[in-house]
Amino acid sequence: MVATLIALTLAAPPDLVKAQKLFDRAQYEKALKALGERCDDEMTRRPCERLRGFVMMALGDEGGARAAFVRWLAEEPEASLGPDVSPKLQALFGAVKREVLELRELTVEPLRLRAGESTWVFRVDKPEVELDGLALFVALPGRESFARVDLRREGDAYTGSASAPAEDGEARYYLVADLSGVPVASGSESAPRSLTVRLAGSAPPPPNGGETSPFDMPGLGAPVPAGDPLPGWALGAMIGGGVVVVAVGVTLALLLTGGSDPGQLEVTVTFRD
User: Helices (H), strands (E): how many in the chain?
Assistant: First the structure.
């Protein structure tokens, strides 16, 4: 019976009205006691964490205030403190909000796998905020369930690997960052992000709907590096063009001379390097 009463007492939601009145009277220790150890009640969790942040800051516990704001913003990232807030409290809240919003935008880089490869390596660019941990939950192409992949810090990124056959497709995933002991998610199992997976041999479709022209052939239309000799096809095209020019010149000369003696017409063709 005693154990049941203790359990009910611990499970009781915080008395927010009482805690707010105590806070307004600057009775911060009593206000904290009225809030209880944790803000576990789903209906009052957000206002409870907000008030806890104010109380902890008033008690000089900046770390406790920060943790309370992280828990609040993890559920309500667009929240604000409102007017009539001290600059110090506003600065702390603003810094925490930027960190939470950054973590909610974390993404995994697209994957390029080799055919026959069985190790998938995932990479996430390191955010500016320092984390206590980062986990990836991924459902590979054609699979419904999510598998956990713990990511580790390596230089400017977090990386991790999983074993599975390589295949094209779209994987689904979400990330959960540990910020001051509070989980902050990017995506969720019910609203996952999409991850593009391509095999190394896969290529994008050709331009123009697959239609080709002579200028799409290898070697045609490509710039020739300075100092390199001309390829054979280019030299042949230049010589052929020169012959055409000479032929046109001869024809015009014949037309202009009319019925004069053909022996009076002289054509000299000179080829130079």
Answer: 7, 8
